[in-house]
Automatic annotation (TrEMBL):
<feature type="transmembrane region" description="Helical">
    <location>
        <begin position="247"/>
        <end position="272"/>
    </location>
</feature>
<keyword id="KW-1133">Transmembrane helix</keyword>
<feature type="transmembrane region" description="Helical">
    <location>
        <begin position="50"/>
        <end position="69"/>
    </location>
</feature>
<keyword id="KW-0472">Membrane</keyword>
<feature type="transmembrane region" description="Helical">
    <location>
        <begin position="304"/>
        <end position="321"/>
    </location>
</feature>
<dbReference type="GO" id="GO:0015920">
    <property type="term" value="P:lipopolysaccharide transport"/>
</dbReference>
<dbReference type="InterPro" id="IPR005495">
    <property type="entry name" value="LptG/LptF_permease"/>
</dbReference>
<protein>
    <recommendedName>
        <fullName>Lipopolysaccharide export system permease protein LptF</fullName>
    </recommendedName>
</protein>
<feature type="transmembrane region" description="Helical">
    <location>
        <begin position="7"/>
        <end position="30"/>
    </location>
</feature>
<keyword id="KW-1003">Cell membrane</keyword>
<dbReference type="Pfam" id="PF03739">
    <property type="entry name" value="LptF_LptG"/>
</dbReference>
<dbReference type="GO" id="GO:0043190">
    <property type="term" value="C:ATP-binding cassette (ABC) transporter complex"/>
</dbReference>
<feature type="transmembrane region" description="Helical">
    <location>
        <begin position="279"/>
        <end position="298"/>
    </location>
</feature>
<feature type="transmembrane region" description="Helical">
    <location>
        <begin position="90"/>
        <end position="112"/>
    </location>
</feature>
<keyword id="KW-0812">Transmembrane</keyword>
Length: 329
């Protein structure tokens, strides 16, 4: 396995661990099996790729060129007529291709995966809200107090009693049913009652209604929403500050390979006899500075951040490239 591939897997693993920790934190709120954890992880893959691929490309390019310089291979390339301009054009082309792939990921895959991820979590939260146990008091379904005599693993209940206290424009009610089952339809909980009676208590009378089937719905506070189209999702950047920040931040991460290619050449192509150290510090400073600028400018001016940070970084990279590479080699 090449060092570039190994580096990618290391960064991908670290990013995956971070996202897995976030997913694991959800298990304190909702119950999920291994398949559902895997589903959430797949929904997070597009964002994982955005974070790992640009940084991997930059570090791999720096290390590859540095190793070539160490073995004097860059001198051989220059001797054969491959001047720094041709090398820069080659890697800028590769960086542009990678950035295009990442832009496709940002504009198409991330909106869909993020909405699916949010809807899945809300679905599981809604499902967790109705976890009634047998022979326990004080349990609720919507506005109803619930007591059941028996339950099984298939969410089938028997000996069901529901009580609703008097409310404005509604009298006190009591429902008894032989059996009941719970359904979760797109985050909306439904309690299906079979063979029971409804008692409604007013000041003067008691009314009784017998039923064979009855359905009670409980709408969650955060219902599972419909999936927006890509155009609808990103049109929110004009009214939603958080979404505007996300778009600016992701765009700048996607453009990082193009913005940093000339810096990578300046770091990697060296005269090894005089520049044996400092490559890792230079890589760290470059990545940290770019991420800091991306975060700050995306927070202050998300609409203009991609242009400002990308142009500024590319301009600085070009100046460094001219002084360290073109002027020497």
């Amino acid at each position: 396995m090449s060092s570039s591939a190994l580096l990618f897997f290391i960064l991908f693993f670290i990013t995956s661990v971070v996202f897995f920790i976030k997913i694991a934190a959800l298990t304190a709120i909702i119950k999920m099996n291994f398949l559902e954890l895997g589903t959430l992880y797949i929904y997070l893959l597009p964002r994982t790729m955005v974070y790992t691929l640009p940084i991997t490309f930059f570090i791999a390019l720096c290390i590859t060129l540095f190793n070539l310089s160490k073995e004097n291979e860059t001198i051989v390339l220059f001797t054969l007529g491959y001047n720094p301009k041709k090398i820069a054009q080659l890697f800028l082309t590769l960086a542009s291709g990678l950035s295009l792939v990442l832009l496709l990921d940002i504009f198409v895959l991330i909106p869909i995966s993020k909405q699916l991820n949010n809807n899945f979590i809300e679905y599981k939260k809604a499902e967790a809200k109705f976890n009634i146990k047998a022979n326990e008091f004080g349990q609720k379904f919507a506005d109803w107090l619930v007591y059941i005599e028996h339950s099984d693993d298939t969410k089938l209940y028997s000996g069901v009693t529901l009580y609703q206290a008097p409310m404005e424009n509604e009298d006190e009610k009591l429902i008894v049913a032989t059996t009941a089952a719970i359904d979760n339809e797109k985050g909306i909980l439904r309690l299906n009652l079979d063979k029971g009676k409804i008692f409604e208590f007013s000041k003067d009378t008691i009314q009784q209604i017998n039923f064979d089937e009855m359905h009670l719905n409980s709408n969650p506070k955060t219902p599972v929403g419909a999936i927006q189209s890509i155009e609808e999702y990103w049109s929110g950047v004009f009214v939603d500050q958080r979404r505007a920040y996300d778009l600016a931040f992701f765009l700048l991460i996607a453009l990082f390979p193009m913005a940093s290619t000339l810096i990578a050449l300046s770091i990697g192509i060296v005269t090894y006899r005089y520049n044996k150290s400092g490559i890792y510090v230079a890589m760290f400073v470059t990545i940290s500075t770019y991420l800091l600028l991306t975060t700050l400018v995306s927070t202050w001016q998300p609409q203009f951040a991609p242009i400002i940070v990308f142009v500024l970084t590319f301009f600085i990279a070009y100046i460094i490239y001219q002084k360290r590479i073109r002027a020497i080699f």
